[in-house]
Amino acid sequence: MIVITQSSINEERIQEIVSHIERAGVQAHVSRGIGRTVIGIIGKAEPALAEHLRQMKGVENVIKISKSYKLASRDFHPDDTIIDIKGVKIGGSNLVIMGGPCAVETPEQIDEIARLVKAAGGQVLRGGAFKPRTGPYSFQGVGVEGLEMMADAGRRHGLLTITEVMTPEYVDICAEHADILQVGTRNMQNFDLLRKLGTIRTPVLLKRGFSSTYDEFLNAAEYILAGGNPNVMLCERGIRTFETYTRNTLDLSAIPVLQGLSHLPVISDPSHGTGRRELVEPMAKASVAAGANGLIIEMHTDPDNSMTGDGVQSLFPDQFARLLKDLEKLAPIVGKNFDTSKAEAEQFAVWQK
Question: Residues with Cβ < 8 Å from 172, sequence gap 6 or more?
Fold first, then answer.
């Protein structure tokens, strides 16, 4: 259930309504939008509460939300959520590019890639320190040392950083070193992890499970939001279908669908979504055309020899830079803001094939 207030309502009156809701034994979450304020009611409220609220001064309407996800719903928060991380705004009309290797390998490797991401016009450095792998004998990442390497590289080159967190026990230390925490596809319904992420304020990039419905995806986001962390981004990273030519099937329709259902920013991952280098660029452009608020793209200086074996889906630096220049032309056509005017094209001459 949500309470829609009149546009002329003042803060004192909003707090009176909140107090009335909480006295009924349920929670109230206030969302201040452009032109109106919406108060979401979380918990099982008695039917009489809705009638009482409708009669209160300053209340325009009370609407029942049938969706199981309340806080993630656009009904609760009509305006797009924009997450501001050290001046980088994610959501709305902004286009944010996250680039980097699947895994942090050495200080030299992550520093060089950070330099190239920045030079191309990217804003966020990606890299895994803890890697969930299908096989137990595969490279699992370099751990906390990798977090430190990436944090140093990010600071040195003026980039935000994003890394994957796998267990509740590692949330605090990952948040200490990274600006954004990523929840991978295998952990989308790791509810203990989601609850822990709700207790912090570090932004979270939640990847869709490879066999998950939109409803399941948004309910996973609800766990984090309900815990008190409003800084959640949704990431479409491909789903498992019968097709074997690509690693996954990138569900482009998820982008406008999720933006219709939810106010949260939607990011696309064409690297995992296809698993094929030659498909990353066209699917990245298609994602932006579909309305994505950002892209997370694997880029490596020596993808054929990456320690994770995922090099087949990683762009070379010159491909990454060329893609960002193309996105600069595409962005305004689809109502997005993206500028690579400060990119340093000469940095990529060595990578030209």
Answer: 200
